Amino acid sequence: MINACGYPYSKRKANDGKVFMGTKDINIETGQAINDIVFSRGEIGMGNRHLLIKYMVESKSYYIQDTGEGTGTFIQVDKSINLQNDFVISFGSSHIHLTITPSAELKLDFVDGPSTGKSL
User: Alpha-carbon distance 62 to 67, whole Å?
Assistant: First the structure.
């Protein structure tokens, strides 16, 4: 279980409220662990340092952040959320990049899937 200090069985042993997950265990140059939780390299789409779960003391809340490696980090949403510029929305095999224009319009660009290259 993850707590406000991080992951008790962490490979990084940092106790900094951060939990990194990915497929890479050790930084070859420094010899230090780079992930708290290490997945098999066979985990399709998982990057070396794929995502971060962080505890924020001020709000007493956990946050998730994709680190930009691998194929992305996705959560299932069961309530309405505020859309933000540069969100990527995925459904089926399609991925849409969302841009909020200066005139507050939404531009949707298909970046993957059967409609790749189309815009709405």
Answer: 16
pLDDT tens track for 45-59: 889 999 999 999 998
Using a 10 angstrom Cβ sphere, with 0-12 exposed, 13-18 middle and 19 or more buried, the burial of residue 111 is: middle
Higher pLDDT: 52 or 114? It is 52
Q: Per residue in 33-43, is it b (16+ CB within 10 Å) or e — as a string?
A: bbbbbbeeeee
Give the Cα separation of 30 and 13 in Å (integer): 15
pLDDT for 49 equals 94
Nearest to 19 by CA among 62, 60, 72, 57: 62
Q: How far apart are CA 113 and CA 18, in angstroms?
A: 33
